[in-house]
Amino acid sequence: MRKIAALTLVTAMVALTPVARADASVTTLRGMSLEEKVGQLFVTYVNGQAADVPHPKNRTDFGVDTPAEMVRKYQPGGVIYFNNSSRDNIDTPKQIAQLSNGLQKASKIPLLISIDQEMGQVTRIGPPATQLPGNMALGAGRSTQDAQEAARITAQELRAMGINQNFAPDADVNSNPANPIIGVRSFSSDPKLAADMTKAQVTGYEGRHWFDPDSVTSTAKHFPGHGDTSEDSHTSLPVSNRSLDQWRQIDSPPFQAAIAGKIDSIMTAHIQVPQIDPSGNPATLSPKIITGLLREELKYDGVVVTDSLEMAGVRKLHSDAEIPVLAIKAGVDQLLMPPNLGLAVESVLKAVRSGEISEQRIDQSVLRILKMKLLRGVMLNAEVDVNKVDQIVGSNTQAAQRIADRTITAVRNDGQAIPLNATAPLVVGTSDAPATALATRLKATKVVTATSPTPGQTQQALAAAASADKIVVLTNGLSTRPTQLDLLNQLVATGKPVIAVATGVPYDVAHSNAKTWLATYSTTTVSMEALAKILLGETKPQGKLPVDVPGPTPYPFGHGVTW
């Protein structure tokens, strides 16, 4: 009955003016218990691919057997899906839709169902969902229209599967080439290009009007900016040495653009910024950064969500019981993936009951979350039509290919090795899927090595090169992996024409004397097809470097050749 009443009230709110709608939201909030309010602050993982099927990890993690029972027990504000060995929620589009519907049925207030579907390097749902090349490739293409369309495609397909919040776009300015965790997830090292692309994607994800049934809540991340770090916040507590003025010039513009685009939510970073907050606390737990910079300086009043609270970056200085309380006091609204949900909920309840956090402060966050759910249409259309999923998911592959075709950058073609015009081409790659896709298209022999090739793999590639007339080498992080660089240099030394292709960060191109270098920024199928078209002379490269490339042979932002 409570869920029906809430939905009835929300339906009535749609027709109201913004002021009246806010008043009605407050009325809804007043009908909630403290426990229900605190539940809305949390976004948790789930174990399993079906809402009502037991999974042993749910008993360990939540004290219940099924994902639906977890929702009924904790009534969280949202859940997040993963596709890995420890938390595998993903099988088919129809299965995902059924899981989403089952979880929504178990919740009194409709859930935010979220995912990290940035596309490119961070993609949780693979084919048949439409695959796109990712942010840095879009930055190389320079088209805000393509960036918006890529986000629109992703949003439409996610929403068809019952997913209504995407933790994307990555709004970090990748100014540090040694950054181990952002890299190609960033649009650019240029603040303006990153800002323009971020704003375009906000429009693509969220649509142009409220209640758009094909839209999702988007989330710009990782505030105040993770692009200048040299460590991974999953495993350590990185430091950004930006001054306040540097932050305003470099890291802030994409977040300002997202806010100007009326973005629904912004995710925090588990990084220290000692010149802005000398306390040592990560940004997620910093009132100076979350309240002072984001809320007050940038005038943002939307939802703020933490990055995963399982990550080492946020757990280094404080206990799992303290972290949720400190995050709320810093100005955060949504608490993502606490390692112990029961402990986290009880910690917040205890803080409210003791007076450490006022219930009014909890109400502020819950009101933001409820408004976001309402305006995104989640309160009205939480469940999806399972019978329509397969008609929508994967229906945008041609558009994705057109976008990818405009992203490939030719950095150097001194060897005039393109078009390929080879009778016995060889593809050498660091992983199987892209090497197979490209070799199939080129009718080439392939050798798959590794990001750090063994001596045996190097010898296998050199042996195959002996009978090849042209060699295509797909690199990935070559600039930091000596054995991968050594293999490329040995292939160049054979005297055969070598076309080197950076399939990850483009910094590889500065570290080898290969006469021909291209950059795809992505190993997705559409990127390999776009590469094949250029190698075969079917299209010409259009992309330009979206970052400065330092090194022995440096290249500036904006560089790119064509023919």
Automatic annotation (TrEMBL):
User: EC class of this enzyme?
Assistant: hydrolase
- Molecular function terms, GO-annotated: hydrolase activity
Identify the keywords attached in UniProt to this record, alphabetized. Glycosidase, Hydrolase, Signal
Return the InterPro entries for the record: GH, Glyco_hydro_3_C, Glyco_hydro_3_C_sf, Glyco_hydro_3_N, Glyco_hydro_3_N_sf, NagZ_Beta-hexosaminidase
Q: EC?
A: 3.2.1.52
Q: Coiled coil as a keyword? A: no
Reactions catalysed according to its record: Hydrolysis of terminal non-reducing N-acetyl-D-hexosamine residues in N-acetyl-beta-D-hexosaminides
Ranges of residues in domain Glycoside hydrolase family 3 N-terminal: 34-371
Q: Quick one: signal sequence residues?
A: 1-22
The record's Pfam families line, in alphabetical order, gives: Glyco_hydro_3 (PF00933), Glyco_hydro_3_C (PF01915)
Q: Which family does it belong to?
A: Belongs to the glycosyl hydrolase 3 family.
Q: PANTHER family, from UniProt?
A: BETA-HEXOSAMINIDASE (PTHR30480:SF13), BETA-HEXOSAMINIDASE-RELATED (PTHR30480)
Write down what this protein is called: beta-N-acetylhexosaminidase
Query: What organism, scientifically named, is this protein from?
Result: Lentzea roselyniae
